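Good morning N.,

You mentioned wanting to compare the apo and holo forms, so I went ahead and generated the holo version with 2-acetamido-2-deoxy-beta-D-glucopyranose. This is what I fed in:
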Amino acid sequence: MFSFSFVSLALCAVLASAQTPPEISPVLLEPGNNAGKCLTAASNSDGAAVTIQTCTGASSQQWSFSGGSVKLFGNSKCLDVTNGSTKDGTKLQIWTCSTNGNPNQQFWYTGDKRLSWTNHGKCVDLTDGNQSNGNRIQVWSCGNGNANQVWNTGYLASALPSKSENGQTGTNACGTSSSQSSQCQTAWINGVDDFCLWAPPSVGTIGDTEREEVAWCTRSGRGTRVIPDGTLKGVHFVKTPDYVQVTGVGDFTKINVPRGDAGGELDPHGADGNGNPIGGLVFGNSFGNQLQYHEWTSFISDTEFCFRACVGPNAARNCQHIYDEMGCFWNMPANYDAGTFESCQGDDDLPMGVYGTSTWFQGVNPTPPAHPAAKSSNCARIPTVSAKPAQKKRDAFTTFYAPGPTPTA
Ligand SMILES: *[C@@H]1O[C@H](CO)[C@@H](O)[C@H](O)[C@H]1NC(C)=O
Ligand SMILES: *[C@@H]1O[C@H](CO)[C@@H](O)[C@H](O)[C@H]1NC(C)=O
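and this is what came out, ligand included:
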């Protein structure tokens, strides 16, 4: 596993210059606060406005990073700062890509997921943070932690590429069947009886296989492997304002984790930005229909697991994954009891590693205690979690609010 220290994080930020995102183009560009909205060109005409709109996967939303520019429509048109004006609030437009490096069309993708106008100290900015369709996008002075300047690169769940990252061993276009030899690396997290775990494709420690883990799910029908009945001994799902989380215990030797393996941590970024597993994507219905989670963190050992997927302005903080040696109980304090299968609403846990105004870094003595688990309520229990088919229509985000009896299909 990768041990970041404060120093290596700072170094990453410097080395992140002149980068393109790790995800293979074309990608959707989704504002950090709403994975259902996409950076969109009004048309392919020179001078067309750039706005956000509901993601549809149309060609006007399929951006490619190429030659220092952000392109679409067969790489013929470029994201362009209107008239090259450096005034904060200048709107972005679409223009024919220049052949001689027009500076108005030069952008780079930063390590903290911003689209920076190269050499200008300006960033692509969701005007006023307004997520309504039609809101025109501007450039604004880059500000650390400005949530309006986060642009996640992603894909529609219904149109996943075969591979989302170079070096990926499996696939994201997983189909609608299931197979215990599947190499699907698209996971879902929807509820106590509808979630996936990352585990090895064949027996091997998490440390040795972290880059290759595949999705093992409670539901068949999404092209993944299915967690065999009897594997899960206790499952606790919680939805908070800013994340969904599933924690529990089981016998994960049934999904290729060797007995005695203390396990390890999986996340979308890894040490090199490519994630563990490489190309692993996570989707869910809890905050909107089939939305991609761009920030998530998960641990699994031979006997316990935890998986959190985050949204909102604090997604990266709530799904912090630099504490990769600290395990589930420290990173995601929650109920892990065997014999209980429940779905609750809850408050956010305090962000891992953050104690008031100070942040602890792994390896620094003394190691602070875990935060207490946040309050939860409205828990609904089910008898057990066993494999069953994904129900396309019913896997709506309403199911959480009315867990009711175990669905019978
Ligand atoms: C850009 O420049 C052109 C030509 O000078 C001018 O007509 C247009 O109003 C300018 N656009 C903006 C948004 O300033
Ligand atoms: C948000 O953007 C939409 C689309 O441009 C606009 O109609 C609306 O007035 C904006 N809302 C606010 C509060 O500015």
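The first helix runs from residue 6 to 15.

Happy to go through it together on a call whenever suits you.

Best,
F.
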